[in-house]
Write a structure and sequence with these properties.
The chain has two helices and 17 strands. With 279 residues, the chain is α+β, with helices and mostly antiparallel strands. The protein folds into two domains: 231 residues, Immunoglobulin-like, CATH 2.60.40.3680; 43 residues. The strands form two sheets. Strands 1, 2, 3, 6, 9, 10, 12, 14 and 17 form a nine-stranded mixed beta sheet that branches. A hairpin with a 4-residue loop joins strand 4 and strand 5. The radius of gyration is 26 Å and the shape is elongated.
Length: 279
């Protein structure tokens, strides 16, 4: 049976979320704000010789407040599988850096009820960046969220998926225009999220550049009804490695009893041989 390492649950649109992965920012409470535009870029470099995936993430989000001024807590979910990202992480509002805190979601939190009410599938495998932002009356703010990190593939898994949750955009009012691009280098993905016409129809545009390949999904002024997009890598060698380890464990476990059985059979064979010689 194959197993999948989800690093998606990776990121998500800014929003209040309950799903492992990275994704859009979202409001941590009900509000009238609208996310009118989102532009997301992943740079993913997988050099097999280093046995790790280096990545950088940059997300730009435009949030419109149609009513009076209000202060809202925003949340940006990201995978707990991302390593060494803290020192490079930054959050800006209209190009001005702002403070944020990192929060680890737990299934018992009261926040879960709000996330469930928004139909945002979050699990306790995800962390959040939380920030308080004041939105002026009848105006838009631009949020920029970025970091660099790495992912270490797990030898217990033979697939690895890096996802971005676009479904968190539904936590905002109205429709949105969004573009998500994965630029991949080194080992190219073996699979990517594709549309299912009978359920949700969307398009992934694939293009090659000098040293890699780009996967892009785009929506224009609409409600995004799918939950996430992703690229996936396969590791058949990991499955072989696990098989070898399993065989070695079985041999190690059965080794001594097997040796005893072999010795008994050998002694029995000699006794029978000697008996027939006497006859």
């Amino acid at each position: 049976m194959s197993s999948i390492m989800i690093v998606p649950y990776s990121l998500a649109d800014i929003a209040a979320v309950e799903y492992t992965g990275t994704g859009d920012f979202f409001p941590a409470e009900d509000c009238s704000l609208m996310m009118t535009n989102a532009n997301i870029l992943f740079d993913i470099s997988y050099q097999e010789s280093y046995d790790q995936i280096d990545l950088s993430f940059k997300g730009n989000y435009t949030i419109y407040n149609p009513n009076s001024s209000q202060n809202i807590t925003l949340a940006a979910p990201f995978s707990s599988d991302f390593k060494n990202w803290e020192s490079s992480c930054s959050l800006k509002v209209d190009d001005n850096p702002i403070e944020f805190t990192v929060y680890q979601y737990h299934w018992s939190d009261p926040w879960a009820e709000y996330l469930d009410s928004k139909n945002l599938a979050i699990t306790n495998l995800r962390n959040f960046i939380l920030a308080n932002v004041t939105f002026p009356e009848n105006s838009s703010l631009r949020l920029e969220y970025m970091f660099e990190g790495k992912v270490i593939p797990d030898l217990n898994d033979d697939q690895l998926a890096i996802l971005y949750d676009v479904g968190t955009s539904r936590a905002w009012n109205g429709s949105t225009s969004e573009r998500v691009e994965f630029k991949t280098y080194g080992k190219l993905p073996d699979s990517y999220s594709k549309s299912i016409p009978e359920i949700f129809n969307y398009t992934c545009t694939i293009s090659n550049f000098s040293n890699g390949r780009s996967y892009t999904w785009e929506w224009v002024n609409e409600r995004i009804m799918i939950d996430n997009v992703y690229v996936m890598y396969y590791y058949p060698s990991n499955r072989l490695y696990r098989l070898i380890i399993t065989i070695m464990m079985i041999v190690g476990y059965l080794g001594i009893p097997l040796m005893i059985v072999m010795i008994i059979l050998k002694i029995r064979e000699r006794l029978l041989t000697n008996r027939w010689k006497k006859l």
